[in-house]
Each structure stands twice: as structure tokens, then as C-alpha cells.
Amino acid sequence: MTSVPRIELHLHLEGAAPPAFIRSLAAEKRRDLSGVFDAAGNYRWTVFRDFLRVYEAATSVLAGPEDYARLLRLVLESCAEQGAIYVETFVSPEFCGGADLPAWREHVAAWSEVAADMDRQGIASRGIVTPIRHFGPEKARRSAICAAETAGGWIAGLGLAGAETAGKPQDFAWSFDCAREAGLGLTCHAGEWCGPQSVRDALGLGVTRIGHGVRAIDDPALVRDLAEQGVTLEVCPGSNVALGLYPDWPSHPIARLADAGCRVTVSTDDPPFFDTTLSREYDRLADAFGWGEPDFARLNHWALDAAFCDAATRDRLR
Ligand code: ADE
Ligand code: ZN
């Protein structure tokens, strides 16, 4: 492992759930999750739509603040083992009590307690409230209200995940405006399944970060704009390769984006789904592009610059 302290900005909490944890919850609750796991006990999916289906089926056994708090602790422990000192994780009111504000507050209180404890153990974290694009703008509004009402502590941002082909970023403008007014940082998945226009549309929401953003590489003018505006790309190369966006690591555009002056960072997205870890991402970047400590130090510096935590936490982590 490199000695560079790692910052992870793009990690879906449910997507980081170890399959064994989901299986044990399903057994406790006598829930049938056939179709979710393969014979070896790993998540079983084929293409992106199927990934989303399996993701949502696995998530359905998580019920209530206690399950979600146990999950956050497991995930942060595993990130710490991977050398992370700061993690931002996507959390979705739409999965946690159906974007009902009292239920949401209970989830945030439970996460905040775990996060404070893990902070004392050397790993800081924040949550990014993440509406699901294919659940539609109306549910996103309710999530944004949950975000705004719990802003300021552990909840530090608003994002947008799910099927990028389902609706335009502009359809979610109300939610992003609501979150901005509450002082939250803004990011949006874009340029994963759709091309450069999707990234431009996401920038129109006033985000400072883009989740993935890799398809910007198809438009040199957009790449220049991203570099000039200092927009941070939350790049998850292992996810992109596993989902078939790129056939292999050497074809992935992360190095070309970095060479063009874009602020690229590295995250794992949904590690057990994509058979990855932070260490594997770094090792494969080293193999594919010859990246070493100075490159990793630079991208982690950019990641901390772009983190949605307060300035005091950022200074403490520098
Ligand atoms: N939710 C979890 N992983 C995702 C991804 N890679 N893209 C969009 N939504 C997601
Ligand atoms: Zn993602």
C-alpha cells in the first residue's frame, strides 16, 4: 500500500454492503433474496439495469436506523483498512424510510453517532444525500427537504445517482436549489452512461463535483472547461471497467483527463459489486499508467480540496 493517506469521495453506502452482511440480515428477517447472489455468495448481476435491480433487492433487507448504523460502521472499518482517512458516502432517504422526515432524522442521528466514534478511531466521514434519478423528481424533492432539514452536521451534501438516462438534471433543479440554500455541497452523477451534454447539464445545477464525468473525454472543449473551472471528477475506474464502459484499464480516460488538467480523484463506487477495493484501484492505476506516490498524493490533495466537510475538519486532515 502507498503511504499516501486516502480520501474517498464517491461510495454508495448500500453499494458497499458486504454480501455476507446482507445475507445474514436476510436470514434474520427470513427474507428470500434468491437471484441476488451467485453460487460463491457474491452479488450476481449482468448489465447496469440488472445491477440496479440487484442493488435495490439487497438494499430492501436494510430496515431502520439500527441496520444502517451497523452498515456504516462495517463500511468505515473496511475503508480504514484500505488506508482511508476521510470518506463521503451516498445515503438515500428514498431507501431509508421512504423520505419521511422523522424516520430520516433517526437514521441521521444513528449515523452521526457511529461517525463520531469512527472519527475517534482515525477515519472521518460525511454523508451525501442522494436522490435516485429513476425514482423521479417528486421523490427527489422530498429527499432534498430531508437533506436541508438535517444539513450542517454529518450530512454535508446532495448528489443524484441512479439511471442517468432517466430524465435530465434540469428536472431536479428544485432539489439542488433547496440543498444549496441549506449550505450543502453539490455533486451529480453524469458522464457515466450519457455523453458530454449530460455533464454540461449537471454543471448547470451549480455542482462543484461530478460523479464519474469520464465521458467528458469525448468533448475537448468540455474537458478544457472542467479544467479551467476546477471541477472535481469523482472517478471510479474499476466500476467503469466492471460495468463495461471501457474494455480494460489502459483504455480508461482517467490519465488523459488528468493530463488535460482536470482534477481527478479515485473512488470505488460499490466495491463488492465490482470486486474492487481502494488498494486494487491504486494498484491497477499504477500498472496501467505508471502512477506512483506523487500522482496519488496529488489526487488525494484535490479530493480533500473538494470535500464537503467544514474547513476545520479539512485542515485537521491535511
Ligand atoms: N448507484 C450505485 N452505483 C451507481 C452508479 N455507478 N451509477 C449510478 N447510480 C449508482
Ligand atoms: Zn456512483
Automatic annotation (TrEMBL):
<dbReference type="GO" id="GO:0016814">
    <property type="term" value="F:hydrolase activity, acting on carbon-nitrogen (but not peptide) bonds, in cyclic amidines"/>
</dbReference>
<dbReference type="InterPro" id="IPR006330">
    <property type="entry name" value="Ado/ade_deaminase"/>
</dbReference>
<dbReference type="Pfam" id="PF00962">
    <property type="entry name" value="A_deaminase"/>
</dbReference>
<protein>
    <submittedName>
        <fullName>Adenosine deaminase</fullName>
    </submittedName>
</protein>
<feature type="domain" description="Adenosine deaminase">
    <location>
        <begin position="5"/>
        <end position="318"/>
    </location>
</feature>
<dbReference type="InterPro" id="IPR001365">
    <property type="entry name" value="A_deaminase_dom"/>
</dbReference>
<keyword id="KW-0378">Hydrolase</keyword>
<comment type="similarity">
    <text>Belongs to the metallo-dependent hydrolases superfamily. Adenosine and AMP deaminases family.</text>
</comment>
<dbReference type="GO" id="GO:0019239">
    <property type="term" value="F:deaminase activity"/>
</dbReference>
<dbReference type="GO" id="GO:0046872">
    <property type="term" value="F:metal ion binding"/>
</dbReference>
<dbReference type="InterPro" id="IPR032466">
    <property type="entry name" value="Metal_Hydrolase"/>
</dbReference>
<keyword id="KW-0479">Metal-binding</keyword>
<keyword id="KW-0862">Zinc</keyword>
